[in-house]
Design brief:
Length: 141
């Protein structure tokens, strides 16, 4: 059974992502349901693996789940702690999608929303090419 967020949590997540530096809403990649989030050209300095397509670095599904990428060591922590799974395309289409491409589960309450927002923030930093100045909540993952 697919985990979903109530609409208020999904809306709060969308608003939180839109507050990140240089982020704007865009069409969801590959015409998937939901909304995409892109970085302005001057800020999109991350590795190619940080992006889904073009400057789009995060896709928020109608369920509240997110598709995003993280540095491999961060992605492994997220998966190990049960916050996400490796994107199915990364598993079944080796090479088509980087292995650090994740589907982060939808938050079910405000505490989970806070953690999911921190994960989105880490993906934002990865897409911007920033690592050193970001304090990551590794103990919460």
């Amino acid at each position: 059974m697919e985990q979903t967020s109530d609409q208020s949590l999904r809306d709060a997540l969308e608003l939180a992502v839109l507050e990140f530096s240089g982020v704007s809403a865009c069409a969801s990649p590959f015409d998937a349901p939901g909304i995409g989030f892109a970085l302005n050209d001057d800020l999109a300095r991350g590795q190619p693996e940080a992006f889904i397509t073009g400057n789009c670095w995060l896709s928020l599904q109608p369920t509240g789940a997110m598709h995003l990428s993280l540095r491999p060591e961060w992605a492994q922590k997220i998966v190990n702690h049960g916050w996400a799974t490796v994107h199915p395309f990364a598993r079944y289409m080796a090479g088509a999608v980087p292995p650090q491409s994740l589907v982060v589960y939808a938050p079910r309450d405000p505490a989970e929303l806070a953690v999911v927002c921190r994960i989105a923030s880490a993906a934002h930093a990865y897409a911007m090419g920033r690592i050193g100045d970001v304090i990551l909540p590794d103990t919460r993952w």
